[in-house]
Amino acid sequence: MKVVVYVVLVYFVAFAALHLALLALAAVDLRRYWARLNESAFRRTVRSPLAPPISILVPAYNEAAGIVDSVRSLLALEYPRLEVVVVNDGSTDHTLDRLVDAFDLREAERPLPPFLHHEAVRGVYLPHGRLPLLVVDKENGGKSDSLNAGINFSKYPLVCAIDADSILEQDALVKAAMPFIEDPWRTVATGGMVRVANGCRIEHGRIVEAALPRNPLAMFQVVEYIRAFFGARTGWSAMNSLLIVSGAFGLFRKDTVIAVGGYRTDIVGEDIELVVRLHRTLRDEGRPYRIVYVPDPVCWTEAPESARILRRQRRRWHRGSVETLLIHRRMIGNPRYRGTGLLALPALLLFEVLGPVVELAGYAFAVAAYVLGDIELSFFVLFLAVAVLYGLVLSVGSVALEDVTFGRHTGWRALGRILTFSVLENVGYRQLVMLWRLEGFWQLFRRGDWGAMERRGLAVPAAVDDDR
Amino acid sequence: MTAVAAWTAIALLGAIGLLLGTLVHRRVSTEIRRRALARVSPDLDAALIAHLAELDPAFPDTGGTAMGRRALRTTALGMLLELRGPERARLTAVLEHAGIVVESAGHLGSRSPRTRRRAADALAQYRSAASTDALVGGLDDPDAQVRIACARGLAELGDPRYIQRIVEVAAETAPTRGGLAADLLLALAASSPSTLGGMLEEGRPELQRLAAAVVGELRLADQAPALRGALSSANDAVAERAARGSGLIGDAEAVEPLLALLRDHARPWPVRAAAASALGAIGDASTVGALEAALREDEWSVQVSAANALATLGVPGRETLERARADARADLRGHAIAALDR
């Protein structure tokens, strides 16, 4: 029994060391980014004729209620040259009609580009005027399938994949495109920080006032997002080992995405899988590249406020990570893939995919060891306290980084609420999320999807919970 | 074991305390600074606007304080990109009078690269002749960002004595800092467009590519011959940018080299597609035959560019597309219909 306890201890120490290192790297990287943000480069880029044009891809399934506002706010973003490509993924509501009416669209003849495979296109619509908008109406095939269609029909060299309900900051594209402008030879993808929009005042598809949600589940997710985006992703990006470019906002070089085959449509974690495939292909080809995380709050998304939807989301996320690891298992621990193979993927396996198993087993074994008299009560309590306190160090550290850089949640009351929920998440919420993630595992086993993953098409529409 | 856990818990509590302390300290100090700025900014802003609009000849008074200068500098940096002509010159004079230009020039000697970068970036925007010496000194800075910003400042000032040095900085930084070097070239294009022509003729490929992009996007027709020369560059990225640039300028004399590019099947598709688009933009009807041949290829992007180019070439181009619309090949029909529909 003691051996198991020691294993858990070693695991915990390894986890702590890695995440502290990531937090430290994030602090250095954020300081560097913040210093550069104050320069005039961003403002000049908005006017530069040399900024690479961007196609914004908006996969939409039954988004009739908000699609017009979303497209209007996207068309009004600050960027020299952009087009918006909406892909209506076989919606059963009036998504297409709303777009046709609001933007005076007409059906146009367009040949089917051959770059990526996707479900059949029913029609292509263009505005009568010069609005840079294209609507592709296709059979339902899911979010990845829609993104592939969007990539096919887009005309610009950079594509920005977002969710239909993503709300972008006015300067989001400028900030996300800066790495492409500064280092056009190597940069292949950039991801931006995603924030929780619940509680914010939203008007016509724009965040008018940032505020915290009242719903406790959404508040827990605010803390999670701050920790994930300010701590972990900034740190991984500093090592060029970023594995996730959020599906809610990511900018890619179109030719590279096409070269690696676009989004896979037979898995649920298409965003993480594409990034891992980019790492793999580019390393295999020996091509120098960068996948950069822009530590700036560029995109807002609605977090689930009900346990039912949050549970579904977490199960899908977990399943997506497992699927990606299975597909790219040869990269794990392989020095050929440098930081991605030696650190990021093993960390994903050990601390994300196996995390729920180890943590929940750790609780069970600790209780059993105490009952059997293998450990003392004082040690058990202290160990739990250390685990909670360590989680708090990460949370408070990330909150501090957010506050001293971008500080979108001003006011002492907001800070107090974030810190309070950082403490409270350790009592119940964390454990619940662990259980849901285990369910993701279980779903894969039970449905026998392990082998079918390579072949089966996923006809699941883009759901509200695809906002990782 | 218990003792280790206890000490770890104490250490973690200490770390949390430290982080919270830092957080509170930063928040309080930021708030104090914000309030101090808010006290002086409104009056200064009003005085500055009155001065720029020539309603009040007196310079805004910063009170000689660091906070006053800071407030004025912040407002000025926000306005500099928007202003042109005499208003901009007046704003530069205000900054010189308030001692802000001298202050920024002094910061170029700081040991902190971050301070030097910010100072160089600010000086590049002030466009003050008083900063020339400091900017020239900054060209030898160990930090590349400082060197580029200083070179941009000198390019903005347009003093011909420093063009060679500016070109050296651009050449040195283009391979690794493309965006910043492009900014520098954009500034240089305003004061010395012929320098960009020179870069196109004998620069390194990275620099040639940027120069071709700038010459094309800014439609610097005087530099069209240099751009034409770059069409035959062995570097595909340079040739592609030069083709796009020739199209943007509408350089009729570039038709022959563009046709050669279009027919060169050893070139990758982006180069040949750019050549087809450029031929359409130039609008020479004699290129219809070559574009029709490109339309009949198997490379999708070249076909699209050729079809769209044909659509802009008047009656002969549209007749070619009408014929393609009735072709046995489905892809050809599709491209022709789409191009005619545009």
Shape of chain A: globular
Number of helices, counting only DSSP H or I runs of 4 residues or more of chain A: 15
Helix content of chain B: over 70%
Give the termini separation of chain A: 38 Å
Number of strands of chain A: 12
Folded structure, characterized:
With 468 residues, chain A is α/β, with parallel strands linked by helices. Chain A has helices spanning 2-37, 41-47, 67-75, 95-103, 143-153, 172-182, 216-238, 254-259, 270-284, 307-327, 338-353, 355-371, 377-405, 412-447, 449-452; strands at residues 54-60, 82-89, 105-108, 121-127, 133-138, 158-162, 167-168, 187-196, 201-203, 206-209, 249-253, 290-301. In chain A, strand 9 and strand 10 (206-209) form a beta hairpin. In chain A, helix 7 crosses helix 14 and helix 12 (355-371) crosses helix 14 (412-447). The two termini of chain A are 38 Å apart. With 342 residues, chain B is an all-alpha fold. Helix content of chain B is 75%, strand content 0%. Chain B has 19 helices and no strands. Chain B has helices spanning 2-52, 66-80, 85-97, 100-107, 113-126, 132-138, 144-157, 163-173, 178-191, 193-202, 205-217, 224-230, 236-249, 255-263, 269-282, 288-295, 300-311, 314-325, 330-341. The relative contact order of chain B is 0.04. The model of chain B has no long low-confidence stretch (mean pLDDT 92). The interface between A and B is large, with 47 and 47 residues.
SSE arrangement:
The complex is a heterodimer of chains A (468) and B (342).
Chain A: H1 2-37, H2 41-47, E1 54-60, H3 67-75, E2 82-89, H4 95-103, E3 105-108, E4 121-127, E5 133-138, H5 143-153, E6 158-162, E7 167-168, H6 172-182, E8 187-196, E9 201-203, E10 206-209, H7 216-238, E11 249-253, H8 254-259, H9 270-284, E12 290-301, H10 307-327, H11 338-353, H12 355-371, H13 377-405, H14 412-447, H15 449-452
Parallel strand pairs in A: 1-2, 1-6, 2-5, 8-12
Antiparallel strand pairs in A: 3-4, 4-5, 6-11, 7-12, 8-11, 9-10
Chain B: H1 2-52, H2 66-80, H3 85-97, H4 100-107, H5 113-126, H6 132-138, H7 144-157, H8 163-173, H9 178-191, H10 193-202, H11 205-217, H12 224-230, H13 236-249, H14 255-263, H15 269-282, H16 288-295, H17 300-311, H18 314-325, H19 330-341
Helix pairs in contact in B: 1-2, 4-5, 5-7, 6-7, 7-8, 7-9, 8-9, 9-10, 9-11, 10-11, 10-12, 11-13, 12-13, 13-15, 14-15, 15-17, 16-17, 17-18, 17-19, 18-19
